[in-house]
């Protein structure tokens, strides 16, 4: 993911993130608050410089396609983050990350002969 320098898994539900946006480095911890394998994962920050919550949902469309939906709420408190939001940098990064994720899953599916969650290549509505 663009702007992510490091993610350290603290335990089964918590991670520590180090990111960089518009030259500003930020650290924060997240915890998984809801997870249903092959359907959704939701998280929120618990400490650090960033306040956010989000969820990724996976919806099988048919035997060969899956819709991936990302919903995030972010409080941009720092000047660098506010500038990145106003100029569209954050939206472009997220769209780029979603496209790279799509490519990764489809490539992995082709190599294994299976799609995401064993259902076929993944597509997104970006």
Question: What would you note in describing this structure?
Answer:
InterPro entries: COQ10_START (IPR005031), ORF3 (IPR047137), START-like_dom_sf (IPR023393). This is Cyclase. Residues 107-126 are annotated as: Disordered. It comes from Streptomyces alboflavus. With 126 residues, the chain is of the alpha+beta class. The protein has a single domain (4-118), classed as 2-Layer Sandwich (Alpha-D-Glucose-1,6-Bisphosphate, Chain A, domain 4), CATH 3.30.530. The chain is 25% helix and 47% strand. The chain has a six-stranded antiparallel beta sheet. The model is unreliable at 116-126 (pLDDT under 50).
Helical amount:
25-40%
Class computed from helices, strands and strand pairing: alpha+beta
| CATH class bucket | Alpha Beta
Strand percentage lies at over 45%
Catalogue the unreliable spans. 116-126
Cα shape: globular
Q: Give the strand order, joined by hyphens, for the main sheet.
A: 1-2-3-4-5-6
Mean pLDDT: 81
| CATH topology value | Alpha-D-Glucose-1,6-Bisphosphate, Chain A, domain 4
In short:
By secondary structure, this protein is α+β, with helices and mostly antiparallel strands. 25% of the residues lie in helices and 47% in strands. It has helices at residues 79-86, 89-112; strands spanning 4-9, 14-21, 24-36, 40-48, 51-62, 65-75.
List keywords for this structure.
126 residues, alpha+beta, 6 strands, disordered C terminus, globular, six-stranded antiparallel beta sheet, 2 helices, Alpha-D-Glucose-1,6-Bisphosphate, Chain A, domain 4, single chain
């Amino acid at each position: 993911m663009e702007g992510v320098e490091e993610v350290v898994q603290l335990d089964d539900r918590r991670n520590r993130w180090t990111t960089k946006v518009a030259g500003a480095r930020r650290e924060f911890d997240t915890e998984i608050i809801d997870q249903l394998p092959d359907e959704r994962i939701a998280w929120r920050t618990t400490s650090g410089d960033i306040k956010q919550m989000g969820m990724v949902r996976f919806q099988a469309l048919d035997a060969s396609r899956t819709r991936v939906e990302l919903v995030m709420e972010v409080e941009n408190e720092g000047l660098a983050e506010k500038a990145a939001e106003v100029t569209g940098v954050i939206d472009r990064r997220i769209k780029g990350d979603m496209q790279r994720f799509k490519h990764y899953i489809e490539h992995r599916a082709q190599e294994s002969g299976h799609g995401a969650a064993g259902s076929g290549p993944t597509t997104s509505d970006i």
